[in-house]
Amino acid sequence: MSNIFYLGYILETILISVTVAAAVTPVSIRLAKKWGIIDKPEEARRVHRRPTPRFGGMAIFLGTTAALLIPAGMSEQIKVAMLGGILMYGLGVADDIHDIKPITKFIGQFLIASLVYALGVRIRFISNYFGLENADVNANVILGEGVAFLLTVFWIVGVTNAVNLMDGLDGLAAGSVAIMASSLAYIAYIHGARLGAMPVCIALVAVAGACIGFLPYNFSPARTFMGDGGALYLGYMIAVLSVVSPLKRATVIGAIIPIMTLAVPLFDTAMAMLRRTLKHESIMHADRGHLHHHLMAAGFGQRRSVLVIYGIVAIMGMVAVLISRDLYIDAVFLGMVALLYMGIIMIPRKSQRGIKRIITQDVMELEKQYFVEYLNAERERRKHLRETEEDNDDA
Predict the structure, then answer these.
(1) What is the pTM of this model?
(2) Which among 2, 29, 190, 274 is least surrounded, fewest beta carbons within 10 Å?
(3) How many Å apart are CA 266 and CA 180, to the nearest integer?
């Protein structure tokens, strides 16, 4: 079937997901207040200043699920993805209510990813890009069960936590996932007729639509947070839908596409793990060293910080689209622009010497540094105004 045939399903999907998410969000706020699922700004790494409901993930989950009930989006692999999504959302809700230990949450994610693998959603092969001998007739290196299992589980758990770590500012995770899902959905759409990717496209549109419906309540100043239920669910859905075979094309370049789309959260997570390792802390230890914390320390504020990261995520989404169309030079250029911006954010104007010190620098110290610079600049400005007024009086 042609892509045009599916346009009606796509429009129906986004309409349902946006509408359901927008309608359920106020209900989730009331339930959060009733059940005491409230995020209190007690930790230093928190950026909000007042208790806020954190049960908005219910709206994202129900919006996506309602839209995926459309038959055109219900391939066998999509059904497996939905089953895992239900379990991942349940794990996140349990964390929102009972604040379970990080290791327990990690084990739960591992078991869910393992179940999804057992049910057939897996990375089965890679391109024979390096001329390996054990390639099949299509020049694909078929992975052994052990390697395929590790790759699939590592990808699902890694991306799930990467998106969860993005949920640090109002609207950041929801808007970023909407952009990432839209980019992957567009790639699936333009290659849909040839690769049979339309069910994946529709599923990704459902995820993006649910985020869009939820975003008006979550953008700064947020009236509700998605909580771990929403963050884990979104991370899982992005991860597992990018593993479904039509998006994971039989080329090494095809395998890069989801990595490029998810470059920002993956980069941020890799830097967090490196930072915590260098500081001899647990990689699960929460801190204030993420991209959005650096932007906040520089005085951008929540809204502008979020919009800056939206822009970088959108650039990387375009990089993925260009790669899918074999426009590699254009993709490399745009990718370098995005990396430049991320580097500028991570390295302050007056950074400490040495890569290790830059990576492990205390963002709270940066905030003090920027504040002192602001005060000094304000003193100079006022001094200049006084001198100008005195010169005018003398004249």
Answers:
(1) 0.81
(2) 2
(3) 12
Question: Would you state the structure tokens that stand for residue 136, as one six-digit string?
Answer: 């099949």
The token pair that represents 326 in the structure block: 């074999």
Assigned token pair, 32 = 């959060």
